[in-house]
Amino acid sequence: MAKLTSFRWSDNPEPHKARTKEIIQKHPEIRNLIGRNPYTLLVILLCVGIQVVLSYFTKDMPWWAIFVVAYLVGAFACHTLYVCVHECSHNLLFKNRTLNTISSLIANLPQVFPSSISFTKYHLKHHSFQGVEAVDADMPFRWEAKLINNAPVGKALWLLFYPVFQALRPLRLTKEIKIFDAWTVVNWIIQIVFMAAIVYFFGAKGTVYLVASFFFSIGLHPLGARWVQEHFLTHGDQETKSYYGPLNTVNLNVGYHNEHHDFPSVPWNKLPKIRKFAGHYYNTLGYHTSYTVLLFQFLFDKKISVYSRMARDNRGKKKAEKTTQAVSEQE
Predict the structure, then answer these.
(1) Is the pTM of this model over 0.85?
(2) Which residue from 314, 278, 269, 299 is spatially nearest to 130, judged by alpha carbons?
(3) How buried is 124 (Cβ within 10 angstroms: 0-12 exposed, 13-18 middle, 19+ buried)?
(4) Is-contact 78 110, C-beta < 8 A?
């Protein structure tokens, strides 16, 4: 089988705005789901507390046990915090934008590296310009896809070091967004102070626990299959896939990705209701039910590689963007 050497190409704009318009016309009751969930802050505080407490207890554990706890517990808490940062980026906790920003900074604490502010900047571009390489930081670099190829070892290493690749991608958005600002500096200062405290009080093992939890949470772990689930072409040319499996319970319905892209102003706790109201739209789309199965499919299926993405130059028409702005964006 000939391996992929380029992304799939589309001349159309991203597919979600048009579907949002159609769904909202047929199911206006979905508008009632638009809002905020301030209780997400309690989830943030719980998960931050779990990670700090486990960082304390792991400081006296053998090294092998630290990685086991990080893989089986820390990765889930850290991934949930990642989802909470995502909720904050859409201002889905509070009406006040600053309160959402502060909440994201708190959620960022156990994730070791300062990222919540930059994530907010480039993630909103991902929604508006999905697949546009110059704007969408979720799209891999072409050199990244070429480097990894489709061998299992390469794809495993790509997942293991996914945070590194993800951190590099926003650098190509410098013409579209301002990378550094006052909030970015605050994000860096807070993270440096927090991690310095972890190193001082909990030592190397407590610090390694947090680092390992972070890398597992979005890397070589069933949770890492989320990056394949969301936009890899595992079902023909369908660009976005949802995950309807048990891990949505602990990870705030992050799997409802088609629903989220269609209605990004609906908070995580109400995403399943979108599918309930408009199931004839979502049940006919391809979707996944197991992150573990998808992880092994990605690693060993040579038909799937980092090139398995849809790319485009078409940013859509401003008129189309304004039509669905009320229901698809929450500034």
Answers:
(1) yes
(2) 314
(3) middle
(4) yes
Q: Fill in the DSSP letter of residue 71.
A: I
Tens-digit pLDDT profile for residues 233-249: 999 999 999 999 999 99
Distant-in-sequence, close-in-space partners of 85: CB < 8 Å, separation ≥ 6: 104, 107, 108, 111, 115, 116, 119, 120
Q: Which residues, in sequence order, are CB contacts of 179 under 8 Å at separation 6+?
A: 118, 121, 170, 171, 173
> Residue 191 is encoded by which pair of tokens?
């993270």
**What residue ranges in the chain does DSSP mark as E strands?**
8-9, 242-243, 287-288, 310-311
| pLDDT tens for each residue of 71-101 | 999 999 999 999 999 999 999 999 999 999 9
- The C-alpha atoms of residue 319 and residue 313 are separated, in whole angstroms, by 17
How far is residue 141's CA from residue 309's CA, in Å, rounded to a whole number? Answer: 11
Between CA 264 and CA 268 the distance in angstroms is 9
Helix axes 40-58, 182-217, angle to 10 degrees: 60
d(C-alpha 86, C-alpha 92), whole Å: 9
Rg of the chain (C-alpha set) = 19
Could you tell me how many helices (H) and strands (E) the chain has, helices first?
Answer: 17, 4
Nearest to 292 by CA among 229, 207, 210: 229
Sorted by sequence, the CB contacts under 8 Å of residue 277 that are 6+ apart come out as 27, 29, 30
Residues 9 and 142: their CA atoms lie apart, in Å, by: 13
